[in-house]
């Protein structure tokens, strides 16, 4: 199915049945869904298959980061599972990312392969303690360029970095951003949130949105309101 919408709903649930119950309240023609580490560790490939059976395209957000051979095998396994998007950590380096990309060559239905630059939870002090003496924004720019030069399809970044990366990495580079909040909704634990229209203006392709949709009284209406704000 082709999904024109930029919304990826983060199914951040500890139990597969909760995630699948939420999926039943969403329309696969209007949103894609994201399965992260907690849900996958509990539910495994079966939860991804169940979401596929319901018609959803799935972003498998496991952020692989290991030696090249291991990451290549994991990315291939994700492709064999039929996911729409999968990710690795750009800080694993170009040899790791090239191996991941190589693993998808010739695959019947290769997923989009993207890389995480700097997590939105990391500040300058967090980078400093692991020996990186740069502003997060500079590190994001460096890792995004490495990702593009390694032939990957795009990056996960903060929407506030999207305009800079769109200019630096070109139009064909997918920008996937969490930390999105419709105007008037709670920020929760996210910092420096961005509204959907602002994210779009800054060049974001895909918006990862969790609680504003999954905790809404009416998730369908929450999705429709966001799509309306983008039209
Ligand atoms: O990779 C991610 O999806 C991610 C990266 C990041 O830097 N920050 C971040 O918030 N996320 C994820 O984006 C989702 C945001 O959910 P909400 O804050 O509920 O909209 C969660 O699944 C987070 O784990």
TrEMBL record:
<feature type="active site" description="Proton donor">
    <location>
        <position position="63"/>
    </location>
</feature>
<feature type="binding site">
    <location>
        <begin position="61"/>
        <end position="70"/>
    </location>
    <ligand>
        <name>substrate</name>
    </ligand>
</feature>
<comment type="pathway">
    <text>Pyrimidine metabolism; UMP biosynthesis via de novo pathway; UMP from orotate: step 2/2.</text>
</comment>
<comment type="function">
    <text>Catalyzes the decarboxylation of orotidine 5'-monophosphate (OMP) to uridine 5'-monophosphate (UMP).</text>
</comment>
<feature type="binding site">
    <location>
        <position position="34"/>
    </location>
    <ligand>
        <name>substrate</name>
    </ligand>
</feature>
<dbReference type="InterPro" id="IPR013785">
    <property type="entry name" value="Aldolase_TIM"/>
</dbReference>
<dbReference type="InterPro" id="IPR018089">
    <property type="entry name" value="OMPdecase_AS"/>
</dbReference>
<feature type="domain" description="Orotidine 5'-phosphate decarboxylase">
    <location>
        <begin position="6"/>
        <end position="226"/>
    </location>
</feature>
<keyword id="KW-0665">Pyrimidine biosynthesis</keyword>
<feature type="binding site">
    <location>
        <position position="120"/>
    </location>
    <ligand>
        <name>substrate</name>
    </ligand>
</feature>
<feature type="binding site">
    <location>
        <position position="211"/>
    </location>
    <ligand>
        <name>substrate</name>
    </ligand>
</feature>
<feature type="binding site">
    <location>
        <position position="181"/>
    </location>
    <ligand>
        <name>substrate</name>
    </ligand>
</feature>
<dbReference type="GO" id="GO:0004590">
    <property type="term" value="F:orotidine-5'-phosphate decarboxylase activity"/>
</dbReference>
<protein>
    <recommendedName>
        <fullName>Orotidine 5'-phosphate decarboxylase</fullName>
        <ecNumber>4.1.1.23</ecNumber>
    </recommendedName>
</protein>
<dbReference type="InterPro" id="IPR011060">
    <property type="entry name" value="RibuloseP-bd_barrel"/>
</dbReference>
<keyword id="KW-0210">Decarboxylase</keyword>
<feature type="binding site">
    <location>
        <position position="210"/>
    </location>
    <ligand>
        <name>substrate</name>
    </ligand>
</feature>
<dbReference type="InterPro" id="IPR001754">
    <property type="entry name" value="OMPdeCOase_dom"/>
</dbReference>
<comment type="subunit">
    <text>Homodimer.</text>
</comment>
<dbReference type="Pfam" id="PF00215">
    <property type="entry name" value="OMPdecase"/>
</dbReference>
<feature type="binding site">
    <location>
        <position position="190"/>
    </location>
    <ligand>
        <name>substrate</name>
    </ligand>
</feature>
<dbReference type="InterPro" id="IPR014732">
    <property type="entry name" value="OMPdecase"/>
</dbReference>
<dbReference type="InterPro" id="IPR047596">
    <property type="entry name" value="OMPdecase_bac"/>
</dbReference>
<comment type="similarity">
    <text>Belongs to the OMP decarboxylase family. Type 1 subfamily.</text>
</comment>
<feature type="binding site">
    <location>
        <position position="12"/>
    </location>
    <ligand>
        <name>substrate</name>
    </ligand>
</feature>
<keyword id="KW-0456">Lyase</keyword>
